[in-house]
Every structure is written in structure tokens, then in C-alpha cells.
Design goal:
Elements lengths: L11 E5 L4 E3 L7 E3 L7 E3 L11 E4 L6 E4 L2 E2 L3 E2 L7 E4 L4 E9 L1 E7 L7 E6 L5 E7 L8 E7 L4 E8 L9 E8 L11 E3 L12 E4 L12 E7 L4 E14 L8 E10 L3 E2 L9 E6 H7 L13 E9 L7 E10 L2
Antiparallel strand pairs: 1-13, 2-14, 3-16, 4-6, 5-10, 6-9, 7-8, 10-15, 11-14, 11-16, 12-13, 12-15, 17-25, 18-19, 19-23, 20-21, 20-22, 20-24, 24-25
């Protein structure tokens, strides 16, 4: 096995998008691809199921898939392990998984005029999660690069060479992926359900700083941003999720929380009337300290709660607009 290990974690430059992806060292995943199937010579996709049938691996710019037992160009590279490795001879390599994964990694190298590659991670809706840069020289040596996403599941990985060869010539072998959350990886509160658009064009965003504790021992602040300014509103919660349309006709809001629900405190959104600079907030611990008999109490670890914001919007149906939903899990 030819291997140059300095896990290269220090050589990662991250440019995160919607969610955080972090570098990790070598791991053994539940899904693996070492390219030991029939040799592939200049085809648009790997001609056998990738990762044991859990993914497709293609080169969307053309028939650029290539597996080989050795490849000489600016230098000669051999498999990291086994009898073959993979590279695109032009343009990016695209790996699409049929189910969610949370970790991805493998050994990468280059025999082209330049090294380095960009790894773009996408969710199931094809939204960019994060773009990561792996820095490695074009010296025909193998180096490990791996990542985990704790907050958003990965469905697609696009690997593009940063070189003068059209984005290809990123050699890869010993790929690993896992469909389970890594140990110690605790995703934060999860947004779900579509936020309504107010008559002023505001699309509010609900979030929380952390999951709440069953003993209220750690801070948990719920925030709703991009609310229409100078509107009265509340944050409410329940123990089950929907969605269902808020109005039978018209309107863009959904009710995302299943009855019964618990209203918290009414408040003004502040900001400027007609603008989207208002907001609502809730100190989860303070509310329950003041209302010990509120819905769901006493809470137990592992229990889910679902939150949503409601605010006045007189021209809208039911004279109100709703945020999307937020799922929190009691710790």
C-alpha cells in the first residue's frame, strides 16, 4: 500500500454555505468503494453500482470515468490499496447517494500538472451545504481527506480538480461513507415546514441556539428573524408536527405544529413598519420557570417539541402570517 499520511486536516480551507461541514480523520464507513470492479475506460458513469449499490458515480461533463492499475502523466501513481483506483480525465466527479450520509472521505492524489480539489456537498434538495478545498501537491502520493456534517445530511458530493486540466485528474481510492451520525455529533434544532411570505414580502426564519435541557440547566433561546416590523406576534409550541395550509384559499403560510399547542408571550416585532427587520424571541427556560404547568411538562430527554411563530399581517388571509417550524429535542 502506497500511502503518504499527514492526514492533511491542516490543509483544508473551508468555505461553508448553509450548514457546517468539518474535517475528520480516517474512518471505516458503512459504505465503501475501492474500485475493484471491472475496469472502466472513458465512460460517463462507473459501469457497476458504486458503494455496493448505494450511489452512482459519474462525470457529468462527458465520458471521463477511468479506473486503472497505474497512471503516468507528470508522475506515475498506483492504487492506494487493491488493484485499481479512479480518476476523471476531464471535469468534476459527481457521487449521488440514494440515502442520507453524514460522513464522507477517502484517499486523493494527483498525477496532473496541478494538485488540489474542491469538494462540494449537497443535501437531498440539491442545496449546497458546504464547499471545502483540499490542498495536496501533484506528487502521485495518497493523502486522506474526510468530512462530517452534523446538521444537514449529505446526498451528493462533487469533486473538482483545481488545476489546468479542466477540473479532472483528481485520483481517488479507498472511499468511505456512513449513513449514521458520527459519535458525539449532535445536530442542532432543525427547521422544517415552509415559512409564509407576508404582504410586505418578508419570509421569516426561526432558529434556536441549542436544544433545551429537561432540567432547564443550559441556555435555549428561540429567535425569529426577518419578521415584518412593528407587528405583534407570539411563538407557540406543541408536541407534534404537521404541516397543513393555514388558509383554505389564498395565503402562503402553513400550520406546522399539531394541536394541542402552548402559546408563549405576545410581543412586538420591533423594527420598521413595512420592512423585514423585525424579530421575535423566546427564552425557553425563563418561560417554563414562570409557567411550570405548561404543555409537555415535565419534559423527558429524547422528547421532541415543535415551535412556530405567528404575527399580525392584516392584508393576509386570517390577518396573520406564520413562520416555518422548528424541531427541538429535549436533552
Amino acid at each position: 500500500m502506497r500511502l503518504s499520511l499527514a492526514f492533511a486536516l491542516a490543509a483544508l480551507a473551508a468555505a461553508p454555505a448553509a450548514a457546517q461541514v468539518s474535517a475528520i480523520g480516517p474512518f471505516t464507513g458503512s459504505l465503501q468503494e475501492s474500485f475493484e470492479g471491472p475496469q472502466v475506460i472513458f465512460t460517463p458513469c462507473l459501469t457497476y453500482p458504486a458503494f455496493g449499490g448505494a450511489a452512482t458515480l459519474c462525470t457529468p461533463n462527458g465520458s471521463n470515468c477511468h479506473t486503472t492499475s497505474g497512471w503516468g502523466f507528470m508522475c506515475t501513481i498506483f492504487p492506494q490499496t487493491g488493484g485499481k483506483f479512479f480518476a476523471s480525465i476531464g471535469g468534476p466527479t459527481e457521487i449521488i447517494f440514494s440515502n442520507d450520509i453524514f460522513t464522507f472521505g477517502g484517499y486523493f492524489g494527483s498525477n496532473s500538472p496541478g494538485g488540489d480539489a474542491t469538494f462540494d456537498f449537497y443535501d437531498a434538495s440539491n442545496n449546497l451545504i458546504s464547499s471545502e478545498i483540499a490542498l495536496f501537491p501533484a506528487d502521485c502520493q495518497w493523502r486522506w481527506f474526510g468530512w462530517q456534517s452534523c446538521s444537514t445530511a449529505i446526498r451528493k458530493v462533487v469533486i473538482t480538480g483545481i488545476n489546468t486540466s479542466g477540473g479532472g485528474y483528481v485520483d481517488m481510492d479507498g472511499l468511505e461513507a456512513s449513513s449514521t451520525l458520527p459519535a458525539g455529533c449532535n445536530p442542532g434544532p432543525q427547521a422544517y415546514c415552509t415559512s409564509g411570505t407576508s404582504t410586505a414580502g418578508c419570509v421569516s426564519v426561526i432558529s434556536a441556539t441549542a436544544h433545551p435541557s429537561s432540567t432547564f440547566s443550559t441556555p435555549c433561546q428561540v429567535n425569529v428573524s426577518a419578521v415584518e416590523g412593528q407587528r405583534s406576534g407570539i411563538i407557540f409550541y406543541g408536541l407534534g408536527a404537521l404541516p397543513q395550509p393555514w388558509c383554505t384559499t389564498g395565503g402562503s403560510s402553513f400550520l406546522c405544529v399539531k394541536a394541542p399547542t402552548q402559546r408563549t408571550y405576545a410581543a412586538s416585532s420591533g423594527g420598521t413598519a413595512g420592512n423585514c427587520d423585525g424579530g421575535l424571541s423566546l427564552d425557553w427556560n425563563a418561560f417554563h420557570a414562570a409557567n411550570p404547568g405548561s404543555l409537555g411538562t415535565p419534559f423527558s430527554a429524547g422528547q421532541d417539541v415543535f415551535l412556530q411563530a405567528w404575527f399580525r399581517d392584516p392584508p393576509a388571509c386570517k390577518t396573520t402570517t406564520l413562520s416555518g417550524g422548528l424541531k427541538m429535542t429535549i436533552q
